[in-house]
Amino acid sequence: MSQTIITKNNIDFYTNISEEHLIGRLCKLVGAKHYSMIYSNLDEYISLAHYMTNEEALDAAMKLQFLIDTVNLDDLFSNYKHYFNINTTTEDFKCYIEDIIEIFKTCGGYECLS
Could you read off the pLDDT tens digit of each residue along the chain, which spans 114 residues? Predict the structure, then answer.
């Protein structure tokens, strides 16, 4: 299951539920906008923000870029590898984040419809 995401600049932005959780967790890690809900008996639910303005998307892009430029990506990937195929490498993970950065830079903001 996934959400329909409409960007302001008609950029294609396709996700699935797992990817929305991953993007949300990465955004939370860097202090960018994300969705968070704490259920009474469960861990915190973190996901992609339901909407972002252009400024919020650019902020997320900048913070994610700073993350991949400054941290040990092997260590970072070890915390998120369960979101990926067993054959995914650290370089693949970096490329994935770079793709998200590019979407955030060019989307003009977005809104999730479903």
Answer: 456 787 888 877 778 889 999 999 999 999 999 999 887 777 788 999 999 999 999 999 999 999 999 999 999 999 999 999 999 999 999 999 999 999 999 999 998 876
Nearest-5° Cα angle at 16, 38 to 46: 15
Residue 94, sorted as left (phi over 0), alpha (psi -120 to 50) or beta, turns out to be alpha
pTM of the model: 0.90
- Which H, E and C letters describe 40-79, residue by residue? CCCCEEEECCCEECHHHHHHHHHHHHHHHHHCCHHHHHHH
How many other CB atoms sit within 10 Å of the CB of residue 96? 19
